[in-house]
Amino acid sequence: MHRGLIISVLLHTLVVLAFAIGLPFVSQPKAQRVAEFPVEIANISDITNPPKGKAKAKATKPKKARKARAAKPVKPKPPKAKPKAVKKPTPPAKKQVATLVQPTQPAAKPKPKKTPPKKAAPAKPKITSRPTRRPQRPVRKAVLPKPIKKVVKKPVKKAAAPKNDKAVKKAKPKKRPKKVAEKPKPKPKKKPAKKVAKKKPVKKVAKKTVRKPAKKVARKPKRKTRQVASRKPTRKPRRKKRMDDIYSFLKKKNGKARTHQTAQRRTERRGSRSHRPNLPLSISERMAIARQIKPCWRFPLGAKDERTLRVEIRVWMGRDGKPIRHQILDRGRYGRDPFFRAAADAGIRAIYNPRCLPIRLPARKYDTWRVMILDFDPAKVSEGSL
Amino acid sequence: MKINGVVLKWFAPVLLVGLATPALAQNEPRVVIGDPEFKPLPIAITTPTGSAMGKRIAAVVSANLKGTGLFRIIDPAAFIQKAAAASVRPRFPDWKVIGAEALVTGRIRTNPNGEIRLEYRLWNVAGGSQMVGRALEGPAKLWRRLAHKMSDGIYKRLTGEGGYFDTRIVYIAESGPVTRRIKRLAIMDQDGANHRFLTDGRHLVLTPRFSPNTQEITYLAYVNSRPRVYIYNLDSGRREAVGSFPGMTFAPRFSPDGNKIVMSIERAGNSEIYTMDLRTRVTSRLTNNPSIDTSPSYSPDGKRITFNSDRSGRQKIYVMNADGSGVVRISNGVGRYATPVWSPRGDRIAFTKMEGGAFKIGIMDPDGDNEKILTNGFLAEGPTWAPNGRVLMFFKQGRGGQAQIYTIDITGRNEQRAKTPASGSDPAWSPLLKN
């Protein structure tokens, strides 16, 4: 009896334990279904396509943008800085020169202001190269207007008053540059003037002009002659130099350079060699185009077999994002099917509707979207809508 | 060698272009723009110059186009360029500025024979091109028809559909108390103008239908308490009974060629569908079923007929061949279906549906697919198609109210009440008027 009872109890406890422990493993809980939530898909492109660099992309906007960026931190008048910089440079340079001319002449000895151009001709290139540079300096100063004035005025006064040898030496270099601007002249004396112009702090200008003139005059002229030989040097390299100068100036002035931004700019300037202009538009870019045009698409809803009225239009786009011309791909149907013609006209009206123009497209991919096909298809949903 | 050189010189470029073209085409990015939304087209309608009548014509054209719901008429006060200058050569930037996408200009001249000549042009403002340029001539007293035809031309070019403005409506004008209601046959232009009564109201009249030639109307009249189908000639004003049958005849409708009438004839409590050739007066029975078969309507090609029947136990819509063969039920939804009418375009069948204590007007494909309810009400019945198959007319009556005629676009938008001098029901839309 006891044995049987014990066995029975044991077996029952085993069964109970088996249910308690084993059942959870036998019947695995079902995966809980989580409600679906929308996922926003960002820029989808099969291949990463870094932006074009300066070297390849001559897109004017980015350059201007960079200039603007460079100009802004320096001082006010950012928008007007560029145009003024180009135009004004020469007049201010002349003025400076004019003020400095008198003292330099005696030191220069040989050549009076009205030196015959023919004799100076061999030297011209050297000289002319300088005047071209000078105007550029004022460009910077045009951005930083105040320093220029100070530089011009103060040295003149100081130089004129003492009439010492040193003062004379300082003055000389300044005058020659002027002559250069007016007419060709010797190389050496100009450089000091440049430096004077460059260095904004008024006090230092006097010192530096005293020290450096001779050395630099000796070195640089040769280089300049080369430039002159090539005639009209392009402005781009100079601009780059200017930009670099501005950056360095900013770094010094602000103490801490904004490394991230500058690095970005550098990469922009140098350009990404891996940029491929012919990569197809990404889904998000196509979606953006569709989103811009669709509000102006007035499709004649309710037409017979309206879902078959698919109209494909090839559009030639200008860089400004406006269509230049178009071509309906199915010209035959346009001529014979009034429903299709009405639908095609609706598509054309959408493309040219000023309320949906210009179409905002990535400028760096202009080669890609210069010609594109707009597919007005009432049977489909718009690009990227699903 | 020379031949090879020539071949290379002339055919190589061709080959290269041929090979390159598909490659270029593939490279062109394709942007799909779909799922169109309804937006009315902004259109500027200038007053035709050259006559005082121009203002009235412009008003009629504007009302016609606005009534479709497909166009937004730009207020003339916003016009920058004057109509006179625009009729010579529009200055498109001026019209773009005010948001016009289409522009209508015109001028009126009087011919030596006294008729007027209405010249109008439709311009594509965005492209700066002319889309339509036409001239219409007619007696000055028919200036409204000229305006309607002008509206039709504009509508057709911009939508692809034929217009429906130069049409007429025949309907049952109702007056008097409910217990002694007087019902008269009346006719008017689609915009409510030129209204007149065709019968005096002594006999009850129902279900008028236009013939394809628009000069005849068939309808049901209770003359001497006996319902019979009659034909009324609009030119002569004469009325004629269609055949002589022992039972009741009702629900008549012309065949597309106008040579036959299809109708229901009730005999011994069983109504069947018959056709009668109007030239030979020969009748043919199309259905043979103990249930009620009625409301027949031809397809536009005349090869098939849709009708409603309760042979399945409830009122449903069926389609059969014009000779009565091949009967197929096409309505499968819940509720009762009645008064099917085949669209002049052939792509839809309009119907009345009774479901849940309400009447509904809807459309479906000829095979029964894509059923779509356009409107509903306490009593909404009797759909009739505009000749372009895009707009429906029907009548609606509120609880204890007067029956009124309405129009609605097949997209379900733009439900509007038609202008009638009094209460109206059972409308029928004529085909486009000829000449």
Task: Report what the structure shows.
The complex is a heterodimer of chains A (386) and B (435). Chain A is mainly alpha-helical and 386 residues long. Chain A is built from 16 helices and 3 strands. Chain A has helices spanning 2-26, 60-74, 78-87, 90-108, 117-143, 145-160, 165-182, 190-198, 202-211, 213-229, 235-254, 259-270, 283-293, 331-336, 338-352, 366-369, and strands at 311-317, 323-328, 371-377. In chain A, helix 5 (117-143) packs across helix 6 and helix 5 (117-143) packs across helix 7 (165-182). The longest helix of chain A has 27 residues, at 117-143. Chain A is flat, with a radius of gyration of 37 Å. Chain B is an alpha+beta fold and 435 residues long. Chain B has 2 domains: 2-32 and 40-159, TolB, N-terminal domain (Rossmann fold), CATH 3.40.50; 168-429, TolB, C-terminal domain (Neuraminidase, 6 Propeller). In chain B, the strands form 7 sheets. In chain B, strands 3-2-4-5-6 form a 5-stranded mixed sheet. In chain B, helix 2 links the parallel strand 2 (41-45) and strand 3. In chain B, 42% of the residues are buried. The model of chain B is unreliable at 17-24 (pLDDT under 50). The interface between A and B is large, with 50 and 36 residues.
Task: Describe the structure using short key phrases.
heterodimer, A: 386 residues, mainly alpha, three-stranded antiparallel β-sheet, 3 strands, 5% strand, B: 435 residues, alpha+beta, Rossmann fold, Neuraminidase, 2 domains, five-stranded mixed β-sheet, four-stranded antiparallel β-sheet, 16% helix, 43% strand
